[in-house]
Amino acid sequence: MIFICVNYFLRKACEALALLNISTQVFRTYFSNVWVFFDISAIVLTLIAIIWNDRNPGSYRQGLNAFILALLWVKILGILKVINRQMSTFILALIQILKDIRYFMVVLIVILFMFGDMMHIALSTKDNGQFCIVNEEAGTLSGPAEDFCSSEQFVYYLRMYGLLLGEFELDDYKETNAMIIIFVAFTLLGVVVLLNVLIAVISDSYEKAKISSMLLFGRARVQFVAQTSALESFLRPGAAPLVVTGFGERFETFVKSGSRFGRWLILLAIIGTAMNSEIYLVTRAIVVVRGNGFSFVTLFTCEST
């Protein structure tokens, strides 16, 4: 896994250096690309997770590992977006939708927190504040009552989010008159109004993405070709030395004098890490296939039956 990460890191570093050879503005634009940010974040966090798991065997950071897997799946979307116009429209429209609903999400979160606190106060103050205490001691709390009586704010905020998605029973919100009023107000404002506004915003964003689908597809392919060409131009044997400006005379001289030798070292490192990664993946696949008792004979037998 370390070799795979090093291979990706070297490729991204070569792309960045080749673009730096064009201009510093192009170099900065490269790192402002959200897909490049996802790629670099996945590489760095994977290395961090590997080091953590190696130093702390048996103690895994489940949240970090899950987030890294999400970034790796996003990398697949980054590759798929340059296949054809339809695929590019769907994926880039998703990015546009996320941008357009950012202010809506702020309003939605505020409303969730507001009604969550209201439900907590309405239930925890019932019977002069004894309802939650007595029922908790008796072990009769369950469902929304248990969540809204909880001292952890995250629990009843999450319950309100479930209510927004339609996860509720009417009898669970009849403990007090205040809960009934809050329930009706939240369903009207959150479910009827806000969700319909969300649908309208998403529809508008998708329509805009479809109108400019050819432009989005062309931009995605141009970025892909630019990054690939930058990587090839940097690793091509006999390429001209790097020339960078704006970073000081000593740094520019150092980069220019060592660029030819450095290119060969980086090229060999990329080839070596790629070969090592492929060998690792093939051997792991063989181990998994043999361990599960799977073979091509078994596959053809299953197909024929």
Account of the 3D structure:
Helix 1 (2-20) crosses helix 11. 80% of the residues lie in helices and 0% in strands. The protein contains 13 helices and no strands. It has 305 residues and is mainly alpha-helical. The chain starts with a helix and ends with a helix. The chain folds into two domains: 2-94 and 215-291, no CATH class; 100-210, no CATH class.
How would you summarize the topology of this molecule?
Elements lengths: L1 H19 L3 H9 L1 H22 L6 H19 L4 H16 L1 H23 L6 H8 L4 H7 L3 H12 L12 H35 L1 H23 L13 H43 L4 H9 L1
Strand content: under 5%
Major sheet summary line: none
Summed over residues and divided by their number, the pLDDT gives a mean of 76
Query: Percentage of helical residues?
Result: over 70%
Number of strands: 0
Uncertain runs are 294-305
| Order of secondary-structure elements | HHHHHHHHHHHHH
